[in-house]
Specification:
Elements: E1 4-6, H1 31-43, E2 45-54, E3 61-68, E4 72-75, H2 78-85, H3 91-98, H4 108-111, E5 117-118, H5 120-123, H6 142-145, E6 146-154, H7 160-167, H8 177-186, E7 190-197, H9 201-210, E8 213-219, H10 223-230
Parallel strand pairs: 1-4, 1-5
Antiparallel strand pairs: 2-3, 3-4, 6-7, 6-8
The chain binds zinc ion.
Amino acid sequence: MQTVRGIGLWQSDDLPDWPNPACFVDESQDADVRTKVIEYLKAGEVTACSSYDWCRLCGAQLSLAAQEDGYYTWNTLLAHYVEMHAVRLPDDFIQHVLSNPTPIPYSLEAKYDQNRYDDTWWKSQKGWHDGSQVEIVPFRSYYDSVGVLWLTAVTHPVTAAQLKFVRRFSDFSFFSTLALREALRSGEPLLLQQEFHVTRVAEVAAEAAALGLTLTHIRYESREEWQQKAR
Ligand SMILES: [Zn+2]
């Protein structure tokens, strides 16, 4: 069976030895090739869904799914790096895309053959420069960008729409209507989620405000605090 090269797994606090996307940023790359690469990445067959990841360069939190074409495997965040941050991927991959390869459909056999994946090529990639000139704002890592989401005020009387909103948070999804109504009536702050990404706060807070709910988001001060409280 064809060996499938992993591409686009970036370094993080937990994976410090992996490639750094800042080193791959190249604003001078060929625009047509770049567009082609973005389209190719987006068109890859989705083979597995995981949860989400954050962009190492801008902190955006994006949902994440594995994709592959039978030769390479990447995830849905990789197109974001190329499109939003001018990341130029290694020449081997660019040549592969430009050769208009026919994708090999993802099979059941492939699914159960974890040995077909190879990360060694990707892990050895160093990029085009040391990355020091690339501005990374505003988050340095995932741990800087999550916080605790509290429900801190509720207008009365408690409405069905308010209950429905709170039930979206997993800790409350199985609460009985009676118990949840009591919790909202009590006026006590309600911990909605331990690990809520800052980029989603404005949207969810506006939605809550329209229902008469006030949300408060408090970021963790450090990775250590995050580990202690969120995990
Ligand atoms: Zn980004």
